[in-house]
Structures are given as C-alpha cells and as structure tokens.
Hints:
Elements: H1 11-17, H2 21-24, H3 29-39, E1 43-46, H4 54-59, E2 64-68, H5 71-82, H6 86-89, E3 92-96, E4 108-112, H7 124-136, E5 138-149, H8 153-157, E6 164-165, E7 171-172, E8 178-189, E9 194-204, E10 210-220, H9 224-233, E11 236-242, E12 257-264
Parallel strand pairs: 1-2, 1-4, 2-3, 4-5
Antiparallel strand pairs: 5-12, 6-8, 7-8, 8-9, 9-10, 11-12
Helix pairs in contact: 1-5
This protein binds S-adenosylmethionine.
S-adenosylmethionine is lined by residues 3-5, 7, 47-49, 52-53, 68-70, 73, 98-100, 114-117, 120.
Amino acid sequence: MDFSAGYEEYAFIADLYDHVVPYRDRPDVAFFVEAAKESGGPVLEVGCGTGRVLIPTARAGIDIVGLDLSPHMLDVCRERLRREPEDVRSRVQLVQVNMRDFELGQAFRLVTTPFRPFQHLTTVDDQLSCLACIRRHLVKGGKLILDIFNPSLEGLVRDNLGEEFGDEPEFTTPDGRRVVRRHKIVSRDRFNQINDVALIYYVTHPDGREERLVHSFPMRYLFRFEAEHLLVRSGFEIEQVYADYNKSPYSSKYPGELIFVAKKAGG
Ligand SMILES: C[S@@+](CC[C@H](N)C(=O)[O-])C[C@H]1O[C@@H](n2cnc3c(N)ncnc32)[C@H](O)[C@@H]1O
C-alpha cells in the first residue's frame, strides 16, 4: 500500500515535479529560508520531496534533515544535491521514513512542512501521531511551521466532479517532452473532509508519442480553528497565522494559505 499519496508508487511524479510551472514558481522558498535562518538550525523538513525548499535552505548555511517516504522524490533530491558544492551537501541529510511515525534521534530548532505534505494524512489519528513525532523532535522552545491551504467554501461546493480543469502553462522537460497538466476532483467526502484529487499529465514525447499519466491521491482539508485545536492538543502554542508567504495576516485574503507558526509548549 502507498502511504505517500502516490509519490511512493509512481516514479513519473518525481520525474516531472521540478518542471511543473506552479511548483517551480511557488513563492514560498524565501519565507522558509528566512525562518530557517532565524532559527539558526538545525531544521527538519517533513515531506521534503525533491529539495525545492531544502536545497536553498542548505545553500543559506543551515543544517537540514529532509524526511520523505517516496524513494523517487528522494532520488531526485540526491541527484540535485550532487550538483551542489561540498559545503552545501555536507549540511543535508535525507531520510526515507513515514511522517506518521518516525524517530531520528536528533532534536531541531525548527520543523517545517512546505507545500502541504501534512494534508496527505487523512485521519485525526495520523495527524496526532505526526504532530507528536514532530514535537518530540523539537528542542525546548523550538518551532513548527505548518503549511496547509485554507479551504475555499465556494470550491468545496462547486459542481465540477469528474471534470478536468486548470489552465497551467505547458512545460518542456530537459529531454524534450512537452507536458500539459490538468486537475480533477474525483470524489468529495464532506464528512471526513477528504477530496480525492487527480492530477493528469498529458505528455507528448519528442517522437510524437502521446501519454496520459494520472496521479491520484486523497487530500484532507482542515479549517483554521480545527487546525489550531489540533496543534494545541498536540502541545503547541500558536504564535502566528498567515494567509501567504509575505506574512499577510490570516483573514486578509480569501481563501489564501493557512500557515501556522507554532511553538513547542512546555519543556
Ligand atoms: C507536494 S510534495 C511537497 C514537497 C516539498 N516539501 C516541496 O515543498 O516541494 C508532498 C511530499 O510529501 C511526501 N509525503 C506524502 N506522504 C508522506 C508520508 N506519509 N510520509 C513522508 N512523506 C510523505 C511526498 O512523497 C511528497 O514528496
């Protein structure tokens, strides 16, 4: 069974990930690098993927451990690291483990979850287990940045089940494949707050061959106060809630992101 929302099962996702335009242009890197620098490190990135945020953090002089369950995403990250200078590489450690249950034998000043890996956990038990692991890995006064999206009420009731949508720009991979990506909501479980989502990649190979690749996964949405209760229940104090990576306060835009800066409460 795949516990990493398809990332473990399908190698094509890791292969295409760094080229997808909205991922490549995602405006969160400076925010996470700044937080890492403020913390002084070491940092743990939960669900580090291909190193989109992890590598710039290491370049900024911060020691960082990247945790991910997908061997494919970690392979791409290792390949990218091979092209970095030795001092950057020496600041990075990668571990293939499940974020629901891990023990790394190290404590961190900051734990981050850039680009919503936490929402791949679909049950409260899994969320609590993950947050307990994160808390255990924080030094006294250490912080967690929990990065999730703020669910759009309009989006949740839109009558577009099974329809493909999205108008992302086409991208070309270094080996000449042209790719257009579309989105689909396959099903909505409103009682458990889970959308089954499909990301569909239409690939045209240099020889003209066409391929349709589908990455399906469940995505759990959390509302603001639910997430706050979860964090407090897990032994965190909420310090900030942001709506974007420029630190605009929550409620300044809708739906926006839902970014919590939470401090480990107690000892
Ligand atoms: C959207 S990607 C984000 C990657 C990276 N943080 C970034 O910002 O580009 C989500 C990542 O979460 C990882 N993931 C999903 N479920 C996981 C789990 N249970 N344990 C560890 N990693 C998981 C996936 O393999 C994937 O690399």
